[in-house]
Amino acid sequence: MKKDVTICFRTNEELKHTLEKIAEVERRSLSSIIENILHGQVKDKVELKGAKKERRRYQRKEVSLPAFVYKHEAKESTLQTGIVINVSLGGLRISIPKEYDVVNDAEFDTIFSIPNEKTPVKMRCAIRRIVEGGDSTKELGADFIDGDFPSYQKLHRYLG
After folding, report:
1. How many CA atoms lie within 13 A of 87 on its CB side?
2. 32 and 80 in one domain?
3. Virtual CA dihedral for 29, 31, 37, 40, nearest 10 degrees?
4. CATH of the domain at 107
5. Band (123; pLDDT cuts 50, 70, 90)
6. Are residues 46 and 65 in the same domain?
7. How many angstroms separate the CA atoms of 111 and 10, rounded?
8. What is the count of structural domains for the chain?
9. Same structural domain, 106 and 38
10. Closest Cα partner for 34 from 44, 19, 45?
11. Same domain, residue pair 21 and 73
12. Are residues 149 and 81 part of one domain?
């Protein structure tokens, strides 16, 4: 990139010394350090312009994991198959058959397998979002509200 413009600005002595220390540690010029900081700020602002602010606490991982969904409070087992589409430490998005009866804020339990793990992950979830999927499916966005410690450990290893 051609550098044909000079920008001058005033700052305090403490900020100047801090920037000089950073430049020394990174073995770069002070000008280069300042340019990188400014470039990062501008890039973040341009990328965010017009985009929604990310509200999720945890990064999601796109997956395709077979799963079972069932209602914990049901007297008879209402086991239903599904596919986990993405997962994070905070929740998941799962595709299930359209005819499976669910409502927002309802709870369900799920069991799914993570690659290279011998035992499945078992979690209780609260539905936060229901959207139409493909022809015969719908997708549930759900938060994890309970699970055993080994399940959280497996998720952490898998997502880490």
Report:
1. 26
2. no
3. -100
4. 2.40.10.220
5. very high
6. no
7. 59
8. 2
9. no
10. 19
11. no
12. yes
Cα–Cα distance for residue pair 136/141, rounded to 1 Å: 17
* Domain span including residue 45: 1-53
- Cα–Cα distance measured from residue 112 to residue 128, given in angstroms and rounded to the nearest whole number: 19
Query: Whose CA is closest to 31, among 62, 47, 8, 65?
Result: 8
Measured between alpha carbons, how far is 63 from 88 in angstroms, rounded to an integer? 10
Same domain, 71 and 44: no
Q: Label residues 81-103 b or e (16+ Cβ within 10 Å = b).
A: ebbbbbbbbebbbbbbeeebebe
One-letter amino acid of 158: Y
pLDDT tens digits, one per residue of 73-119: 765 567 889 999 999 999 999 999 988 888 888 899 999 999 888 99
Instruction: Give the predicted TM-score (pTM) of the model.
Output: 0.63
Residue in 82, 88, 87 with CA at minimum distance from that of residue 67: 82
Q: How many residues does the chain have?
A: 160
Residue 56 — pLDDT band, cuts 50, 70, 90?
low
Is the pLDDT confidence value at 59 over 90? no
